[in-house]
Every structure is written in structure tokens, then in C-alpha cells.
Amino acid sequence: MQFPKQITLQQIATLIDAEVIGDANAVVAGINEIHKVEKGDMVFVDHPKYYNVCLQSNASHIIINNKDVQVPEGKNLLYCEQPFEAYLTIVNHFRPFTSQTKSINDDVEIGEGTIIMPNVFIGKNVKIGNNCIIHPNVAIMDYTEIGNNVVIQAGTVIGSDAFYYNTKKDRDVWYKKMQSCGNVVIKDFVEIGAGCTIDRGVTASTIISEGAKMDNMVHIGHDTFVGKNCLFAAQVGIAGATVIEDGVTLWGQVGVSKTLTIGKNAVVLAQSGVPSSLKGGKTYFGYPAEEASGKRRELVWIKRIPELWEKVMKK
After folding, report:
1. pLDDT 10s digits, 252-284
2. Which residues are catalytic?
3. Structural domains of the chain in order of their starting residue, each with its CATH number
4. Backbone φ and ψ of 36, nearest 5°
């Protein structure tokens, strides 16, 4: 999330009641997760396991619960006891939740030739391009950006909160929601089926690139990038922060785990599970998904096990 106006480290420190270690007058561009952070951004860390990752990242400013770490040159710290709570304070300050009494917010931008059917909900700061068709009962949540010639079928939700939680076993409620302040960006000529759900980024964008096509009941997790001209059949589920490169086909009920990459023009056959990255230009099948030709040979031999066992027992 980029801040709407220039803000200094000291102003953030005052907001979250933190101690500045470094240049209090440094300008903070925004706050982002570690895998999305850019120079000028702020990130938070509250576990020693991730201290070094954050300190060596592109982040210019780090909210941290340990002031004794070695600070790389050019970076600043904000020290506080509860960095996660500080993150929530910042997000709720710059993007507070506000209820909406109208089905379509007054500030929505809708392009020429776009059709919005009855019972559609559109939140604040939404942009929709030209010649789109938004079917009944679609929900388009805050800050969503939709390009031109996009079709969204009935009952789909664009921009729901990320399924993302801060976990600590030493408190009564183990899983505490990490407030989503990102958005969804849908490019030109995308078609999304009925009953699909696309989560917004936690702090950045979930992106669906040009020409992607989705069947009904497809789920796309937070911060996922879907490349151009991808094809997803019904009941595909993709976890958060995953990269699906151009031209990938995922057939029905394929499940894809988080933070991995499926290479360009890969095909994953129905009901396969993808727990780790796959190279492009190949066809995959099974769980864990492996090249389909080898997996089929394996299944042939598995079917022959009773026959082979019988021959062994006769000897």
C-alpha cells in the first residue's frame, strides 16, 4: 500500500508509539509485505527467524521488536514491542473500514459501453474500463481496477480479504487477521465465470493479466500473479503469492500451493495437486504433479502389481 501523501518516519513513529533508530525525517512511501516491498517502503517483522530477511530486503524502513540488531547502511528502524499491532494501526489509519449504504459507490469510474446489471455491488475507488459486462450479484470491492472488454459472470466476488493471519500460540486467539490493504487488478479481455472469488493483495495487488479466462468456481489467492492468456477450468484453487506465467492451462479441480511458479505454457491435468514450482512447456498430472507421460507409465505398473505378485508367489 502506498501512502496517499508524503509522510515522514517520525510521523509514523508518533502514530504507532515507536522509537526511531535512524533518520526521523526520512520519507516513507508506503507499507508492504516482505515479498512485495520496494525501496522507500516500510515492512514489519516480529520474529527473530525473519529479522535478517527484512533487514537485507529492499525495505528502507523496518518496524521491529529488537533494537539490538545490526542496521544496514541507508535503512532505518522503528522499534516497538508489537510490530504486528503497529502494522494494523497504520493500515486502519490510512485505509479504515467504512460501511457503504449504496449498492454502487458514488466515486466509481465506469467506462463507455460498460453494462452493470441489477444487484451488483461496487465499493469505493473502483475503476471499470470500456465495454465490460458485469452480471447480476457480482461484488467488486474497494480499490479494484478493471480494464476494457472484461466479462464477469453472476455471483463472483472480486477483492475479498486475503486469507492471511498472524499466528502466535501464546495468546487466547491464535490466528489474528492481517488487515488487507491491497487490491485486485484485472487487465483487458479477461473473462471470469460464475461464483469465482479473487482475493485482494495483503498490501499490494493480485493481478489477472490480459486475455485470461476462468470457468465457474475458481479461487485466486492474495497477491497472486496470473499471466496473459491463461485458462482455468472449474474449481481450480490457487493459493497466495503464486506466479502463473503466460499461457498456463489448469484443468478442473487443480490445486496450487502458495509462493510457487508455474512456467509459461505449462498444462496441469484435472485433479492434480501442485506443491512446488513447475517448469513451463510441459504437461503435468497427479499429486505431487509430475510430467504426465511418466505418471501414466507409473500407473500402468501399479495396476500390474497383483499380477506380478501372483507370479512371485507361484515360484
Report:
1. 999 999 999 999 999 999 999 999 999 999 999
2. 222
3. 2-94 (3.40.1390.10), 109-295 (2.160.10.10)
4. -120, -5
